[in-house]
Write a structure and sequence with these properties.
Layout lengths: L6 H5 L1 H18 L12 H14 L5 H6 L4 H5 L6 H18 L3 H17 L10
The structure holds protoporphyrin IX containing FE.
Amino acid sequence: MNAYNNIYDAIGGAPAVRRLVEAFYPRVQAHPLLSPLFPEDITPVMEKQYMFLTQFFGGPSLYSDRHGHPMMRARHLPFPITKERADAWLGCMRGALAESGLPEELQTLVLQRLSGPAYHFINTGDGEEG
Ligand code: HEM
C-alpha cells in the first residue's frame, strides 16, 4: 500500500469511499439477482455502507459508533445470499472500482479484502432460498 497505513488513506479517504458507494449501489439496483433484496429507497443503505466501509478500510469507526458491533454476517442472515449473489455483489464492486479511476493494484486490493466477507456471508445454496 505504498506509504499509506491502510486502504482508507491509500484510496483517498472520505470522498473516495463516498464515490465508491455512489458508484456501487446503482449497479446493485440494476442487477437482477441483487435488486429484489434491497429496499426501493436505497439512501439509508448507502449511508450505512459508507460508514461501514470507512471503518473496514481502516478509517474512523463511524459504523460501530452509530450502530454498535458490526456482526455483518448476522445482519445479512435475513437475506438469502447464494454464491451467485456474492459473485454478483463483488462484480458490482469491481465495476464501481473501475469507475473510480484508482490504480489497478489498489482496485485489486480492495476487491480482495471484500471477497472474504462476501463469501463468508453466503447463507443458502441454490434452489433453497426463503
Ligand atoms: C455477498 C453478497 C451480499 C449481498 C447479497 C448483500 C445484501 C445486503 C442486503 C439485502 C442488505 C440490507 C439492506 C436493507 O437495509 O434492507 C445489506 C446490508 C448491508 N450490507 Fe450487504 N450484502 C452482501 C455483501 C456485503 C459485503 C461484502 C459487505 C461489506 C463487507 C456488506 C455490507 C453491508 C452493510 C454495511 C449493510 C448495512 C447493515 C445495517 O443494516 O446496518 N454487504 N446487504
